[in-house]
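Chain A, query sequence.
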Amino acid sequence: MKNEYPASKISEKLDFLLVVPVYKEEKIIEENVKSLVNYLDSLKLKYRIVISVAPSPDNTLQKAMEIKSNYEVVDVIMEEKKLGRGFSVREAWKVYDANVYAFIDADLSTGIEVIEKSIKIVGGGECDIAVASRYVDGASARRPPLRKFVSKKYNGLMNYIFKTNLTDFQCGYKAAGKSIIDYVIPKTTIDSWFWDAELLVIAISLGFRVKEIPVRWIEYKYNKTSFKRLASDIFLHGSGILYLKGEIINLKK
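Chain A, predicted structure.
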């Protein structure tokens, strides 16, 4: 992974680190990172935003570098290969020293107000991981019917297989405390979008506390789900579940 900063761990202690994985996001990344900077400035935190850029056919990388030049609190990681959200977030989290670590999807579908809530409950010791949820009490989500149906069935299947009790494994915001970085992240190996589920299941199996935060979800890519996309997602998560089941068995040995 190529970095715009030293590859060794950065010694600066932060209150909050936020990773924004991006791929083909040239149209929204500048405005959305600006919103994040303004919001985090208002919280009076010592923070950094890391834009992790997967190789894109558009000008996402150039946009990210322009943003970095305009904001001292923004760093950029240029990934050599497009491996997925798991790789982007895990590798960035390893480099920094912070009290609370988080990632958010570039389209900000979860809303940015979830950030302050997560910092309070993770930083305050109420839980070890805070998870945005579209389905917990108090949340709202405007989603295409097929996506919502498949999402809820998937969450139910995950809870049945792994004996967990979460409403939303894949929502695009999660925050974690230092103990998760030290003890759980080294045990995660999945690079794809299924990494979210891997992180949560391993953390719960090791006794760490997870709390869900209700969000008002806006699906900006609101369109019909193609059967090709649906089949791809089913294969990704199906194979991920089988792999994760093996991981959990090995953890308990």
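The longest strand covers residues 13-22. Confidence is low (pLDDT under 50) at residues 1-8.
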